């Protein structure tokens, strides 16, 4: 009896094993992949180079009569009006050129490693110089209707951006662990200089000697300072190997308007002509321009990545 029970138990065990072997096996799903390591977090320093070109190139010069004396029959007043008209005009001054400099910044990688926020400061020198000469001619009946005196004015301007720097925030999205697309904006500052020179004379003294105001008149003015404004832009940055990245970037900057005196243009009649000797006409002049423009540059950064794993992850 005991032997029969043992045989029956053995058969049941063998049958259970066979049935278990026929059942499908079940495995737990693999765990989700870990987020990419923080390749971008930490401090970095780098160099950049590129180009810049101005957005507003015009330099406006406007003049108005200031005084005249003694004014023979109003002739000196009329000459002052023509002098002011001639000393007004628009010239061009493009602040384009090559730029080169460096940057320093800090990144923080978060939100599962897909977002990168940071702050960056940079400064670049600008290799540019521009000057332009504009001649404006005012012609009319001066000092008598029968005489056509012509007042010729040469306005010479120079406009330059000596250096440009920014302090900006950055926020970007990692399309891959090594490719960052970002927007940026913040403060811009730059060293600017601009000047205006005015030369004016009557070029019809030989043709109308009896109606000529003798003597040329000159005036000048300039402005040079560090201006502060704003900037906005965006770019791409690629971590091409651990600790090293390359970037391309566009920025628009605006340092505001600049107004400055272009001096007082004084014409003195020193000859015995239709005007009394010693007649004098004065004109006050002012120039205005705007410093804004565009920057396109490429750069390379070294990332210190303190505490980050020195590997490049893949999605």
UniProtKB/TrEMBL annotation:
<comment type="similarity">
    <text>Belongs to the Omp25/RopB family.</text>
</comment>
<keyword id="KW-0998">Cell outer membrane</keyword>
<dbReference type="InterPro" id="IPR027385">
    <property type="entry name" value="Beta-barrel_OMP"/>
</dbReference>
<dbReference type="Pfam" id="PF13505">
    <property type="entry name" value="OMP_b-brl"/>
</dbReference>
<dbReference type="InterPro" id="IPR011250">
    <property type="entry name" value="OMP/PagP_B-barrel"/>
</dbReference>
<dbReference type="InterPro" id="IPR051692">
    <property type="entry name" value="OMP-like"/>
</dbReference>
<feature type="signal peptide">
    <location>
        <begin position="1"/>
        <end position="20"/>
    </location>
</feature>
<feature type="domain" description="Outer membrane protein beta-barrel">
    <location>
        <begin position="40"/>
        <end position="304"/>
    </location>
</feature>
<keyword id="KW-0472">Membrane</keyword>
<protein>
    <submittedName>
        <fullName>Porin family protein</fullName>
    </submittedName>
</protein>
<keyword id="KW-0732">Signal</keyword>
<dbReference type="GO" id="GO:0009279">
    <property type="term" value="C:cell outer membrane"/>
</dbReference>
């Amino acid at each position: 009896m005991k032997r029969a029970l043992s045989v029956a138990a053995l058969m049941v065990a063998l049958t259970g094993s066979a049935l278990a072997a026929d059942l499908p096996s079940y495995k737990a799903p693999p765990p989700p992949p870990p987020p990419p390591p923080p390749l971008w977090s930490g401090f970095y320093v780098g160099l950049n180079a590129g180009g810049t070109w101005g957005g507003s190139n015009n330099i406006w010069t406007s003049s108005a009569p200031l005084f005249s004396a003694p004014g023979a029959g109003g002739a000196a007043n009329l000459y002052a009006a023509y002098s002011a008209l001639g000393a007004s005009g628009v010239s061009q001054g493009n602040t384009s050129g090559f730029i080169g400099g460096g940057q320093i910044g800090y990144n923080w990688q978060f939100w599962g490693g897909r977002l990168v926020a940071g702050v960056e400061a940079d400064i670049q020198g600008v290799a540019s110089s521009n000057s332009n000469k504009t001649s404006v001619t005012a012609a009319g009946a001066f000092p008598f209707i029968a005489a056509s005196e012509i007042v010729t004015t040469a306005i010479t301007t120079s406009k330059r951006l000596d250096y440009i720097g920014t302090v900006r925030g950055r926020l970007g999205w990692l399309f891959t662990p090594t490719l960052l697309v970002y927007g940026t904006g913040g403060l811009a500052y730059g060293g600017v200089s601009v000047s205006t020179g005015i030369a004016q004379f009557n070029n019809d003294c030989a043709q109308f000697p009896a109606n000529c105001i003798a003597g040329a008149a000159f005036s000048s003015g300039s402005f040079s300072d560090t201006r502060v404004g704003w900037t906005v832009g965006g770019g791409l940055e690629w971590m091409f190997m651990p600790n090293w990245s390359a970037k391309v970037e566009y920025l628009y900057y605006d340092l505001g308007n600049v107004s400055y005196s272009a001096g007082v243009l004084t014409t003195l009649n020193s000859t015995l002509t239709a005007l009394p000797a010693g007649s004098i006409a004065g004109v006050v002049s002012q120039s205005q321009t705007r410093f804004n423009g565009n920057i396109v540059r490429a750069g390379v950064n070294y990332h210190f990545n303190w505490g980050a794993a020195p590997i490049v992850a893949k999605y």
